[in-house]
Design goal:
Blueprint: H1 4-7, E1 14-18, H2 23-34, E2 38-43, H3 46-58, E3 63-67, H4 73-87, E4 92-95, H5 110-138, E5 141-146, H6 170-190, E6 195-202, H7 211-220, H8 233-240, E7 251-254
Parallel strand pairs: 1-2, 1-4, 2-3, 4-5, 5-6, 6-7
Helix pairs in contact: 2-8, 4-5, 5-6
Length: about 260
């Protein structure tokens, strides 16, 4: 029987995190690396990733930055194969990368919507399938999809009153909503191989938003605040580790009670 600390440890595990320098990506990276996983972070922006990886290595953590394009299948397969050649396996996949292609929101072009789906929906599928093939060979693994509470609700336009911000981005709501049921589908498909698939749907993250937005948003949550820079970490460790060995196919809102209100 494992002790409690061992249940939450990721020592000896190999993790792939797509994205890794944005707000949620940095929290995912901290959760994986500080829990002991050999962690690969990957995105198109290698320079920023490498800066993050260097800082973690200075602190004694095993973090490697790699470049890939989630909209390009050969790039995805190259990333997977390079990691497997170096580390022999991939135990944990965190699908965190997202590309915001609809800069004009509702009034943007069909091409911008298509590009978003190609990267954020098709790319998600191709990457999950590719890494899942590795996990199947070992009959174990944990896949964590980073969704959004925006995949669970419609836009609350009152959040943006008093600001120049808007929430009318149909592609984001579309593919984040789809990610939740894709999680259930993959949990069904991979369950026979003892591979778990879960989704985390965070709420808004405090960054550089106008104070009016922060105030409006805080009133919409049960906890009276927007998420901070540590609020996602615990859920990542839980789903990545053996502490959640009998949990699959779930969607966990980490939103301060926003979607329950």
């Amino acid at each position: 029987m494992k002790d409690i600390a061992s249940l939450f440890s990721l020592k000896g595990k190999v993790a792939l995190l797509t994205g890794g320098w944005g707000g949620f990506g940095l929290q995912c990276l901290r959760a994986l690396a500080e829990s002991g996983a050999k962690t690969y972070i990957a995105s198109r922006t290698i320079d920023k990733l490498e800066e993050v990886a260097i800082e973690y290595r200075k602190r004694g953590f095993d973090v490697t930055a790699m470049q890939f394009d989630q909209g390009d299948e050969p790039s995805i397969l190259k990333l997977r194969d390079t990691i497997v050649n170096e580390a022999n396996t991939i135990d944990i996949l965190v699908n965190n990368a997202v590309s915001r292609t609809m800069k004009k929101g509702w009034d943007d072009t069909a091409e911008a919507f298509d590009l978003s789906m190609h990267i954020n929906a098709t790319g998600l599928f191709v990457l999950t399938r590719a890494v899942g093939e590795v996990m199947i060979r070992h009959n174990s693994g944990s896949i964590i999809n980073i969704g959004s509470m925006m995949g669970m609700v419609g836009t609350e336009y009152h959040n943006y009153e008093g600001t120049d911000m808007t929430g009318w981005y149909p592609d984001y709501f579309f593919h984040k909503g789809g990610m939740i049921n894709f999680t259930r589908f993959c949990a069904s498909y991979f369950g026979r191989y003892d591979i778990r698939v879960n989704c985390i749907s965070p709420g808004g993250l405090k960054a550089h938003q106008p104070q009016a937005f922060l105030d409006n948003y805080a009133q919409r949550t049960m906890l009276g605040r927007i998420a901070g820079d540590e609020d996602l970490i615990g859920s990542i460790v839980f789903f990545a580790s053996d502490a959640s060995a009998y949990v699959t196919g779930t969607n966990l809102p980490v939103d301060g009670g926003y979607t329950a209100k």
